[in-house]
Amino acid sequence: MKPTPFDYTAPRTVAEAVALLGDPARDAKVVAGGQSLIPMLNMRLARPELLVDITRIPDLARLSVDSSGSLHIGAAVRQARAAADPAVRRGWPLLAAAIGHIGHPQIRSRGTVCGSLAHSDPAAELPAAARALDARFVITGPGGSRTVSAEDFFVATFSTAVEPDELLTEVVVPAPGARSGWAFEELTRRHGDFATVGVAVLLERDATTDTVGGARVVFSGAGPVPVRLAAVEDALLGTDAGEEALAGAARAALAGLTPSDDVHASAAHRRETAAHLLVRACTTAWERCS
Ligand SMILES: Cc1cc2nc3c(=O)[nH]c(=O)nc-3n(C[C@H](O)[C@H](O)[C@H](O)COP(=O)(O)OP(=O)(O)OC[C@H]3O[C@@H](n4cnc5c(N)ncnc54)[C@H](O)[C@@H]3O)c2cc1C
């Protein structure tokens, strides 16, 4: 199919983009990498009158680390650029690994980090990684900017806290602790496919007790938004991340996850796979805790 007719514009400032999105006379939509939106246009699942391309806005091309050690990724930063960035690979390897699982190089060289987050596909890798890393989302609209936590950003399938007249301008990711370890695991039918289910894990080793002092575990493909279960994290905290603790965490995942059935997998298959991937990811993350 072909898209319905639309106009295209590429503003050079965030203020211009926000003004276009807020214009009541036109049904405008942000386009970033276009890797999700263009297929939606072609299938006529979206019919905007105007596409506002935000990738030509210099202020949104920023990828930097601030004085407090947090990583800032602007809305125009492509996935491939973020994954290849030495600071990201050194300080936020979970993010780089998650991006490595997205589609194919062609997709990652066009798709943006913020575009994937704003699209909020339940099976996508970046939303789970961002939630595991406790990312903050900077949203800019007619009234200025506001910052939203990962807990509040993902609202429902393909729905976030970003309003139609707003823009996700950047994602801010705090530095993981010095004694933390990470892992990202997922199951796909074929390399490059969207995952059936996945898990992002960030563990922290307590320096005094040599046990798990911090745990953030987030599942993708297991619900409408990235799923974080307190029972899974509680089963790990204070343990040596040994066999017994991992079995407890897996039991908590089996009991707590409520994925849905679809043409790709049954809910039971998703739940069991998630529990297996959790054990594997926690083992790797714990080994990586320095
Ligand atoms: C063949 C193929 C395979 C893929 N495989 C995977 C995969 O395995 N895993 C995965 O996670 N993704 C996959 N994708 C999707 C890819 O990651 C997209 O790049 C991503 O979902 C959207 O990023 P984008 O920059 O292309 O956004 P676009 O497609 O431009 O936009 C997507 C949506 O987000 C909105 N949007 C974009 N940026 C912003 C912003 N800054 N503020 C507010 N709204 C915004 C748009 O209006 C639109 O609604 C695949 C895509 C293709 C075509």
Question: How does this structure look, described?
Answer:
The protein has 290 residues and is of the alpha+beta class. It has three domains: 7-53, Uridine Diphospho-n-acetylenolpyruvylglucosamine Reductase, domain 2; 60-173, 2-Layer Sandwich (Uridine Diphospho-n-acetylenolpyruvylglucosamine Reductase, domain 3), CATH 3.30.465.10; 180-288, Enolase-like, domain 1, CATH 3.30.390.50. The chain has twelve helices and 14 strands. The chain has helices spanning 14-22, 37-42, 79-84, 86-91, 93-100, 105-110, 113-119, 125-132, 150-153, 230-236, 243-256, 267-288, and strands at residues 7-9, 28-31, 50-53, 63-65, 71-74, 136-141, 144-149, 154-156, 159-160, 167-173, 180-187, 197-205, 212-220, 227-228. The protein has a five-stranded antiparallel sheet. α5 (93-100) runs antiparallel to α8 and α11 runs antiparallel to α12. The relative contact order is 0.12. The mean pLDDT is 96. The protein binds flavin-adenine dinucleotide (FAD). Flavin-adenine dinucleotide (FAD) binds next to β2, α2, α7, α8 and β10.
